[in-house]
What we know:
Layout: H1 11-19, H2 21-42, H3 46-49, H4 57-70, H5 79-92, H6 96-114, H7 120-149
Helix pairs in contact: 1-7, 2-4, 2-6, 5-7, 6-7
Amino acid sequence: MVKLTSSELSQDIICLIKNLSPIIANKSLEITHLMYDKLFVKYPQFIDMFKDAPKNQPVLLAEALSAYAVNIDNLKILEPALRIIAVTHVAVGVKPQHYRMLGPVLIGATEEAIGKEATIEFIDAVREAYKYISDILIEMESEMYKEFMD
Length: 150
């Protein structure tokens, strides 16, 4: 069972993300559109993974980004949504290396969308928050892959 706490994130990162969560929410759809545009150019292999994605996939990811920013100090609230995301990822074959590819693209899109408010501290916090949530999803997905293999 995956441990859903934000204890591995520093209090500074949690506070910074929570304090900037209104900006993240306001820019989340722009972030996701930029991310998908950049992702499919840089890594065309992702296109197949999204061929059956809902038409509102950027909206779904934008909502997930906003929810994570708001609830970064209480991840238990996000557990049902994270499980749905993990099931979807397993169904399309997401692997840990996909997170390593996506991360820099998402961070770059965040920096571009946020603009001048994207301080070095903010981007570093986003990077740490992304690593933390992706580690949780990787662990959930790993457990699911193992279940399917049994």
